[in-house]
Amino acid sequence: MNKSEFVELVQASGEYNTKVEAEKAIKAFTEAVAVALAKKEDVSLVGFGSFNAALQKGKSGKVPGTDKTYTTEDKMVPKFKAGKGLKDRVAEGK
Prior knowledge:
Family: Belongs to the bacterial histone-like protein family.
Oligomer: single chain
Number of helices: 3
Helix content: 40-55%
GO molecular function: DNA binding; structural constituent of chromatin
GO biological process, one term: chromosome condensation
Order of helices and strands: HHEEEEEH
GO cellular component, one term: cytosol
Number of strands: 5
Low-confidence stretches: none
CATH architecture of the largest domain: Irregular
InterPro entries: Hist_DNA-bd, IHF-like_DNA-bd_dom_sf
Distance between the termini: 17 Å
Shape: elongated
């Protein structure tokens, strides 16, 4: 599903009058989650899931087929854990 199809789905599900209103709601939600995660705050939506920022440790390794090695730095990455309601809903869709 691409963005325009998702906007149409949100418009129908949320009973928005126009696609512009639905897209504005999506942008507001994603921006709010991004701001919260940048502040290292968790966002929990009961029944849907939770978003959080987690530290991903740096690693070092060797490039296959060469003698070159590389290292990466520690960084914060976004994570999502699905809630029971979402898991059950997806499982029913089989």
